[in-house]
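Quick start: what a row looks like.
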Amino acid sequence: MQLTSDDLFSGLSMLALVLVIAGLVVGFSIARARRHGSTTLALDVTRNASCVFLGLCCAGVVLPVFSALDPNSMSLEGDVAQWVTQVQDQVLSPVCPFDDDVANLAETALCGTWLSNAPLAPRLVLCLGRVLSVLASGAIAWAIYNATRRAGAREPFHRSVSRTFGVVAIIVMVAGALGELVQQIAMTMAARSLEWSDDLLPPFSLSIPLWPFAVAVGLFALSAIFRYGAVLQRETEGLV
């Protein structure tokens, strides 16, 4: 899950918005901790931040669905966008500037890296890929929220913590990797929906992300550590 922008001003605006939200979360957590006399400020900030991020992930699941319903909202990205830009003179489909209104075009058209009247199939595949990516990010936030909530309740080694880390590790490994791969496939499908000269077809360009596997290893390690901590806690109860 990431925020992208095509120009500096909007990019800085999004960065400022993220910083403002982070500041509000920290400020709210500090004020609430002082009001209730909490001694776990770091846990409170982390729990509230993960809760806010979960809310953003919920919105991030809904937005791709609405975007998939709009045939004029698809833009090529990554290696496919670079390839199309390099061979744009080989496109037989309508290309900017359009002679007619874009909304009245009956076929898929290209304007830079933006497609109008994109077919439904690549839009649905792109929607699926983005939802999977958001699911991977949201799962990590949920694991953090569950761990901090249990720690704040004086149950840091509750069995749900280790189980959650184990389940989330699998979700991140599968959804994180598939999400990016599916989005790359959607980009190629969208580019191939254009009409090309001399039977030219955009090649499939797939790159396998490694970060989901690295994060999954860390989550599996945390699951084992918390499971071992729960065993030690049970064995040492009543000894002191």
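That is the whole record. The helical segments are 8-36, 41-68, 78-86, 120-152, 159-192, 211-236. The first strand starts at residue 74 and ends at 75.
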